[in-house]
Specification:
Number of helices of chain A: 0
Distance between the termini of chain B: 36 Å
Strand content of chain A: over 45%
CATH topology of chain B: Immunoglobulin-like
Order of helices and strands of chain B: EEEEEEEEEEE
Largest sheet of chain A: 7 strands, mixed
Helix content of chain A: under 10%
Number of strands of chain B: 11
Number of domains of chain B: 1
Number of strands of chain A: 11
Order of helices and strands of chain A: EEEEEEEEEEE
Oligomer: heterodimer
Amino acid sequence: EVQLVESGGGLVKPGGSLRLSCAASGFTFSNAWMSWVRQAPGKGLEWVGRIKSKTDGGTTDYAAPVKGRFTISRDDSKNTLYLQMNSLKTEDTAVYYCTTGSYSPPYDAFDIWGQGTMVTVSS
Amino acid sequence: DIQMTQSPSTLSASVGDRVTITCRASQSISSWLAWYQQKPGKAPKLLIYKASSLESGVPSRFSGSGSGTEFTLTISSLQPDDFATYYCQQYNSYSLTFGGGTKVEIK
């Protein structure tokens, strides 16, 4: 079964850090371009960033609001995606989803989603 | 960044209605557009990719069209399970963007 399972969410103070993980199974993780998408309470979807597969360069891209504060990485030996979030702001409060696409490049039409993990930034 | 503008933001319709949602890109994105359905408390579900390709398992009452900057998602006959929020998403550039969403409500 194809599955993405996020973990690591929680309550953190403004200025703090948090690392999210996303465990993948049921597909060839090392070939996948992986993204993080977030959704603030009652709001729409916002793409956070993406990491390409190592065979496609392993490069990362980020949305402007998180660039320089968030870092996406992957461990293909563990089939796990990470999101390191530093200098957190109250506006980073959201459900964070990891996601990927199965179709031909660009793999950015997302047919596989995790269940999401909630991050709350509050004092 | 490419901006995606969806309209309407809310749509009231009845079961059996034909429903059309529009998505406009601030610059040409060729056919690199996806549509998603999201229900409360759930992850989004891919409906359409590459503007008009129907995702496996998605009912044929859903269809997508358009290219360049103007796109539409059509539900040919609205069913009770279709009341949800719909998002478009462009994936033409290195930075991906979603539309603001269209909530389809029961009339």
